[in-house]
Amino acid sequence: MSTALTKGTKMTTNSNIAKIGGTTSIKSYREALNDAIREEMRRDPTVIVLGEEVSGGAGCDGQDDAYGGVFGVTKGLMPEFGRERVIDTPISEAAIIGAAAGAANNGLRPIAELMFFDFIGVSFDQIFNQAAKFRYMFGGKSKTPMVIRGTVGAGWRAGAQHSSMLHSIVTHIAGLKVVMPSNAYDAKGLMVQAIRDEDPVIFLEHKVMYNNECEVPDEQYAIPFGEAAFPRQGKDVTIVAISNMVTHAIAAADILAEEGITCDVIDPRTVSPLDDEAILESVEVTGRLVVVDEGNPRCGLASDIAGIVAEKGFYSLKAPIRTVTAPHTPVPFAPALEDAYVPNVDKVLAAVRDVLGA
Amino acid sequence: MPYHEDFLLRAYRSMKTIREFEERCIKEFMGGNVPGFVHASNGQEAIAVAACIDLSNSDIIGSTHRGHGHCIAKGCDVGDMMKEIMGRSSGLCKGKGGSMHIADIDKGMLGANAIVGGGPPLVNGAALAAKTLGTNHVAVSFNGDGSANQGTTMEAMNMAAVLQLPHIFIYENNGYAEGTSANYGLGCDSLTDRNAGFGMPAECVDGNDFFATYEAIKVATQRARDGGGPTSIEAKCVRFDGHFIGDPQLYRGENEVKNARKDQDCLKIFRDRVIKEGWLKAAAMNAIDKEIALEIEKAVEDGLAAPHPDPATDLMSDVYCSY
């Protein structure tokens, strides 16, 4: 059973949980994703998982399910559903995505894992020229219900080719839905929706959040796409933050609240479709906007959201919009540089004070 | 004696340096001195050294995420490597690359690569430059059995055959693509047979045997220098550590690594052979062991003492404009 949440009301995560009802547990982001996938696989035999090491140990002498994904998200699925539905593949990203898209056109609901989303480069044609375009290009006659999972972001000292935030690239592609949960509750509900969705969904998990815990309903629930969450409410400044940046935005809002400055923190949860209405309504009240995104600044999500507000909410603005992003470089390896690269609470605070003229 | 003493001592020194470097990296990683994802190549030393020992700095290699051994075999400074792996500003890439992205262009080391199959097309480019410029240089790509199944790798093999590029494709088949069996990931029985299908000579050797590997690569390198085009060499070997340092390796059989360390250690096999043949004395190798131990100790000490990059100046350097 799923419980769809109503659109448009400003409510906290906790009040959503009350609406869903039933028992709850404290779950990590990793466990919440695992729950969502497992329950959907139980419910719908057409849901399959495929990718590199989604189980691990294929053809080896040791234990099966040795990895369950490199971050353990799909652990335990292969023992329950078998290798027919939890498929370890060769290291062949283009073939993985193509197989998922083709299977989605032909009766399955594949969840393909790209492991590190940086590997999108190897497989990109199958995503943006193929899967993304089928529905429109074939006159609405083709359905591609697939999920592409990948881990994004810096913080693991994994260097330039395992740490990118490439969400803006896929957000740019018409035909793709792009999901970026910032907590375990959203991760579960958005994954359920992603699996049930009829279109290709890019599901981006930030690798520093897998152990983050919060209260999660035990029942299966779907969070509709295009509906922002409001982890903090206020009237002085709107802070829109994406993925793990929501954590920093909330921390900044709590510090500012002690100074009497209240922030409306908006977590879009899905960046395509984007709940631009929620952002514009908030800016109408606050007149001030800070957008926080770990991606690169040019042609990125922060500048995209700033552009929407500049175009549609210009007369509400009392100060120039500020964006807080990574600099325009690849992700550096050295901890000293990586820490300076990723936006943090101090940078959010500085931007908020700047738009307040404080 | 079929090999010059100096050659044998260089080969031994290089292999032993890789072994000590990797085992020390594991220790330093576990001790918290090496950040990030690190993939050790201990057990696979013979192949790196066999491929690189006759190359000049103008011959190019492209490596993998498991690239420390290739770096050392190609002549990269172990002190500067350790600094890089520790993320220090005096490292080979100023601390910006790290273990998975380490490169030394001056030494003809085009880079480790954190994208499986990322290297072979680039190495084709190095080979194309050598062919077009008529330099007589060769290019070597290191690949794993996992990389063999990437489209990029297969496209590069076909193009190398079509353009008759001086590119030696070396496949280090350690039996595992991460935590999946190489045999599972390969749709046919033999990678070498498949590679021959691309239209190039393809040979399979025992990668634990330095001499067998060296002789095969020597022929391939000479053929490439003579304009005879690419070659595939599959070297069967053993990965002594996990896919990454810290990998619990649950997928490996009981005693598998222990037995491999006993029976399939390329360094032991090398030592036993050269002593048995009377080519080298144990004392000469023991002396090298002592030198290497000091060298690695110094690399770690210098690495730990080296300054971290300064975000104020280093974060935004090496870019063409700042946003």
Q: What is the strand tally of chain A?
A: 14
Give the distance, in angstroms, between the N- and C-terminal Cα atoms of chain B: 62 Å
Query: Quick one: CATH class of the largest domain in chain A?
Result: Alpha Beta
Please estimate the helix content of chain A.
Answer: 25-40%
What does the oligomeric state look like here? heterodimer
Mean pLDDT reading of chain B: 97
Amount of beta strand of chain A: 15-25%
Identify low-pLDDT runs of chain B: none
Helix share, percent of chain B: 40-55%
Report strand % of chain B.
5-15%
Structural class of chain A: alpha/beta
Total count of domains of chain A: 2
Q: Tell me the distance between the termini of chain A.
A: 49 Å
Write the element-wise H/E pattern of chain A from the N-terminal end onward.
HEHEHEHEHHEHEHEEEEHEEHEHEHH
List the helices and strands and how they pair.
The complex is a heterodimer of chains A (358) and B (323).
Chain A: H1 13-20, E1 24-28, H2 29-43, E2 47-51, H3 77-81, E3 86-88, H4 93-104, E4 109-116, H5 120-131, H6 134-137, E5 147-152, H7 167-171, E6 177-179, H8 184-196, E7 201-206, E8 213-217, E9 229-232, E10 237-241, H9 245-258, E11 263-267, E12 270-272, H10 276-286, E13 289-292, H11 301-312, E14 322-324, H12 335-341, H13 345-356
Helix pairs in contact in A: 2-8, 4-5, 9-13, 10-11
Chain B: H1 5-30, H2 45-52, E1 60-62, H3 68-73, H4 78-85, H5 119-133, E2 139-144, H6 151-162, E3 167-173, E4 176-177, E5 180-181, H7 182-185, H8 191-196, E6 202-206, H9 210-225, E7 231-236, H10 256-263, H11 266-276, H12 282-305, H13 311-314
Helix pairs in contact in B: 1-2, 1-11, 1-12, 2-9, 4-12, 5-6
